Amino acid sequence: MADPTTAPEPVTLGVVTIGQTPRADLTPELRAWLPGVRIVERGALDGVTPEQIAEWAPAEGDEVLTTRLRDGGSAIVGHHHIAPRVRAAVADLEEAGVDAVYLACTGEFGELEHRGPVLRPEFMIGHAVAAIAAGMTTVGVLVPLEEQRRHPDTKYAPLDAEVVVAVATPYAGSPEAVAEGLRSAAAEFKAAGAQLIVADCIGYTQAMREVLVAELNVPVVLARSVVARLAAELLDRGAAV
C-alpha cells in the first residue's frame, strides 16, 4: 500500500517546439505560469545539423515557419519538413508518460495522432480572441515574417472584426532590435485603430508584450500565455498550480 504521507508525483507537461531545445526564451515563463508542473521538452530540429536546416528552407507554396535554435539564433523552415518531426515528438512524449502536450507553435498541423490532451494554439487562439473581441471592429495580429502577413483566414474565421496584420520578428538578435520591430508594428496597429492585439507566435515573450502595451495602451493577448494558462487548469490536481 502506498504511503499516504509520500508526496504525489508531479504532473508533467511535454513541450514540443518546432525548433531546438532547450527553449531558454520559453520554459522560464512556462514554469512561472505552471508552478509545480514538470516540463519535458522535445524539438523538431533537435539533432539536425545547420546544413540540413538550410536544406529545409520553404519551397514555393510551402507554409513558412520560423523558430529559435539552441544557440539563440533562428531558422526559417518549410512546414512539410517540420510536420512529421512534430508528430514524432508528440508520440515520443506520450510514450514517455507525460500528462499533456503543449505544441509550441501557432501554425497549422492538421491531423495529429495522440492519446492524451494536446494543447494546440492553432485551435485555441482564434476562438479565445473571438470570445473577448465581441463588439470590437478591428483586431491586430502580430506575426514574425512578412510571408505570414496574408490574412490568417482559418484561425481567425470566428472573429467578426476586421483583422489587421503587422510583422515583427521575436528573433531579431538583440533586445533593442526586437523592440524596434515591435514599435514599428505598433505604429501600424495604431494607424489602423486596432482595439486588441494578438501576438501570434509562441516566440513572443512577456517582455515583448509589455513593449506593445506601452506603445498602444490596448489589450495584448500573448499566445504562449493563453495556452499555458489553460494548461494550468488542465493539469491542476488540487495542488497550487
From TrEMBL:
Native source organism of the sequence: Actinosynnema pretiosum
InterPro entries: Iso_Racemase_Enz_sf (IPR053714), Uncharacterised_AroM (IPR010843)
Pfam families: AroM
NCBIfam families hit by this protein: PRK10481.1
The keyword Transcription is assigned to this record: no
Protein name (Swiss-Prot/TrEMBL): AroM family protein
Alphabetically ordered keywords of this record: Membrane, Transmembrane, Transmembrane helix
Domain of life: Bacteria
Keyword Zinc-finger listed: no
Spans traversing the lipid bilayer: 124-145
